[in-house]
Write a structure and sequence with these properties.
The chain is α+β, with helices and mostly antiparallel strands. It has helices at about 75-85, 90-95, 100, 145-155, 155-165, 195-205, and strands at about 5-15, 20-25, 30-45, 45-55, 60-70, 110, 115-120, 130-135, 170, 190. Bound molecules: zinc ion. Zinc ion binds near residues 55, 57 and 58.
Length: about 210
């Protein structure tokens, strides 16, 4: 049996990003959050659609454009039906679309709490010597790599830095101070845990809180 453990982590934000915008109603720069409601306005052959955001201080609204004066014929009929039906999944997808939102609101408060789905890509070795973690990050997140590792491997952040310093933790692609930067899609981690921690680290990486 191989002594390497290979795990894929799919890392998703716990909550959608919040645009920071000037609120006309309460008169200040405020955080807004998605209401989950979609507004559609069909005017002849043109359609406008927005995702409605609410000011977190006063409930004043801001409409995030989704379609702007788009000709009905050029819109995917399924998309149009979902917009008109205020489809919750579509509203969610739009709310988590950081890059799309940034077009309208350059200042965002991005989620720093993550939900991590784990998938084992190898067998679980009895005595893991080497651990590889592939990070899949579908939406941009502000979560620092060292914080992610500390939370998910259930060891202190100082220990994560000590592992890196000793060469027992390597981040690919390599970058200076990579541990202090937000986790990026495609980041790979190679960990050769010290014998006394190997079992704990490997089981945390593979199963998280659901350790068998
Ligand atoms: Zn307001």
């Amino acid at each position: 049996m191989s002594e390497n453990l290979f795990v894929k982590w799919t890392i998703l934000p716990q909550e959608p990003p919040q645009p920071l915008l000037y609120c006309k109603r309460c008169g200040g720069t405020r955080n807004f959050r998605s209401s989950g409601k979609i507004r559609v306005n069909a005017n002849g052959k043109r359609v406008d659609a927005w995702l409605v955001y609410k000011c977190m201080s006063c409930d004043g609204t801001w409409n995030r454009p989704v379609l702007e004066r788009q000709s009905v014929r050029s819109i995917d009929p399924l998309l149009l039906a979902s917009l008109c039906a205020n489809d919750a999944k579509l509203a969610d997808r739009l709310a988590f679309d950081v890059e799309g939102l940034r077009r309208w609101a350059p200042h965002l408060k991005e989620a720093s709490n993550a939900v991590v789905a784990r998938e084992l890509l190898s067998e679980t070795p009895a005595r893991p010597l080497e651990l590889r973690i592939l990070c899949v990050v579908p939406c941009h997140m502000a979560l620092r790599l060292d914080r992610l590792l500390a939370d998910e491997l259930r060891i202190p952040r100082s220990r994560i830095h000590a592992l890196e310093k000793s060469g027992a933790l390597v981040v690919f692609p390599s970058a200076s101070r990579a541990l202090r930067k937000p986790v990026r899609d495609g980041t790979k981690l190679l960990i050769r845990p010290p014998a006394e921690d190997a079992d704990w680290i490997a089981r945390s990486a593979a199963y998280g809180d659901d350790c068998p």
